[in-house]
Records
---
Amino acid sequence: MLPLTLLLLGLGGDERAPVPASEPLGGLLRASEDGRPEFGVLLRPFYTFAPEEAGAVSEPTSGNVFEDLDLWFGQWTRALAWKIGADFEDGELVLEDAFARVRLRDEVGLTVGQFKPRVVRSGSIGDDALLFRERTFLGAAFDVRDDGFELATLGERWSAAFALVDGANGSSSDHFWSLRGELELYESDLFEREGARGAENFLVARLGAATFADVAQSASDGGGLALDLALTYGPYSIHTEWAHLQDLFARPIDVFDGHVVTVGDGDPFTFTFGRTYGPEFEAAVRFERAEDADDTTATRFGLTWVPPGSVARFVGEFGTVEAESRDFTILSVGLVLGAEGPGREL
């Protein structure tokens, strides 16, 4: 798949394509306005403390960790968009994005390479645009990059995308596929980030729906349905999502520093409410129900601070987790510096 991606990189374009609204959260992003190649970095260091009940070992989980240490290159024009990005994980360079998008028609695009299929909104938001340190349960379950292709179309107030990628069993048969549609309920674009920073002083809302299937076992398919709604109204923001997962669909996620939650065979639900206080502060609360075998629920409280004139955004989070096997609290503080780069319009 990557050789085809590299071939598409040679199909340059002249006019820079519009991209979803995003906020460069820091000064480590070099953005071009005329379609020239761009590059940037994203740093997200955090300090976390949790009691021993949170981790897989009988020791407190605490210390410094880089959620992201990314470097990326890309180019965004109307005819062509491409991006190559990597993350330093445990001292090793791990390839993340490696894709190209070409326009087949004015409002139809084809993406080929290694990318993240769009399933639920919380899974597709950039790491630099998260309201909390971690994604939601469902967002983390679909925060997966894979080799394949995606065909997308964009209307005046709606969009749709179909993706087919390798899936759980690699290049063997029975790949992962997803179909997502979005509808703008009001005539203004919703920012491609969580929360209400920079939101308009009137109601803006987007409804999304998706269906998907993946291989959870060697000879069986598991899939599901998902719905999500995101809206902002002046300083307020609401995001909620729900999914029905079949019994053969299972994805382990780790959003609690060692306490793994396996999402599948249930109806996970998330509700997030946030409010900005001027341009500097944003507070939020998030409730989640995993409906996993351990009956995990979590409540998180988050606070974001952007000092005047700063190129960094500081994030603090406190969460309580309840499950049949263990209950614990978790505290994280960190910062976001830089940006992940423009998103994929098509």
Note: Residues 2-31 have pLDDT under 50 and may be disordered.
---
Amino acid sequence: MDPLTLLAAAKVSFEALKSGIAVGKELQGMAKDLGSLFDSIAAITRVAADPKGSLTSGRSAQQIAMEAYAAKAEADAMMEELKNQFIGEFGIAAWDQVLAHTTQIKKDQKAAALEAQKEWDQMMHDLVFWGSVFLSAILVISILVLVLLGVVRR
């Protein structure tokens, strides 16, 4: 995705969070928006770190780089404003806890994805191995049958 599309998604989540905090909405009710904002900001950060852009986008390298930089700067400003508003309403300990939990959950998700990929790779390896054994057995049996039929007919 391009940085401007990611930024638009971040703005939607940001505005929902701002209004939720302003009216004293419970944290649980804002979890989806907070997660969406964090995901959008992380995506903007990744794009800004490596703003390749599309070769067929019709935009210059400078334009792609400036869009990535501007989106990152605006995303950082949104996060800072949200952080200040969140801390003002719930305290710095709550903010630190949200960030710590977010980091731990992302680590857990990454570990689970890696484990699932390892299991998939092992299953495919086993499937190929046992498939090869099965096909080899069929080939050997077929050859034996053909040889026996050839010997019997003589």
Note: DSSP finds four helices and no strands in the chain.
---
Amino acid sequence: MDVAIINMDKTITKLPIFRETRFRSPGEYERQLGFWVDRIGKAEYTNRPVHDLRILGQYAVVAVESGDGELITKTKGTHNVQPNDIILLTPDEPTSYFPRKIWFTRWIVWNGPLARQEAAAIDLELKKPVFRQMADIVHRAFFVLVRLMDVEDRVGALERQAVILNMLVALLRAQSSGIEIGSSEPDWKALVQHIRNHLNSRLTSAELAALCHMSMPHFRRMFHRHTGRSPMEFVVSERISGAKGLLIRGSSIKQAACEMGFTDQFYFMRVFKKITGQTAGQFIAATRGVK
């Protein structure tokens, strides 16, 4: 830790606290739901003196796309922030964050009684305020919300809530995956086990690359080197292997497809035949002795 950070830690308790008062008025359906996305945005900022800490009064994620800086919090200390990191802000934690020179950020802010209930249910308040190298997760949520922010009906309100929840699930899953990142490569065995533990989830190459703190092209190359397949080829193969086990144990084709993350039964049947060389029905007949 450098001298500047040490000195900052000593002065945190002396900084005045500013309470944010700018909030968007939720729409009718958002009030009924008890959850709303207050705002999204993007901007470039330059370094500035730290005069106070701010209580946002809402939840927010800030994705740092370029540049580095610091996050100061009242109860969780000072944290270095690097490019592609995410800052998590909670309603009652006094914070200040700023670039060392200049940075570009995107942010998502949300609020509501249900937002607090959900945060408590997933223990969000206790998570570290910086998620390393996971900005892609926020980017995906941001660009989905771009087309949803002006939708004022019930479906729009529910879709915005779903985007936030899916984003948080992806962040928490990545943080708790147990994949250790070394100086050069991740623990590939741990990554494969993570995939097998989440076959019924919507795994994507982008999410897996974020878990490994790698760019997508580098991750694909390294994954193929270690497994002989692309990430999605491996995921689909593992899902079909899991489905075969379920079919042997008596599950129906529909049940096996659903449990292995296939939302379309007919697509599952096509993939099953392509990989195994026989239909799911033929596989059942052969393994269960059905004539």
Note: Residues 241 and 272 are 9 Å apart (CA to CA).
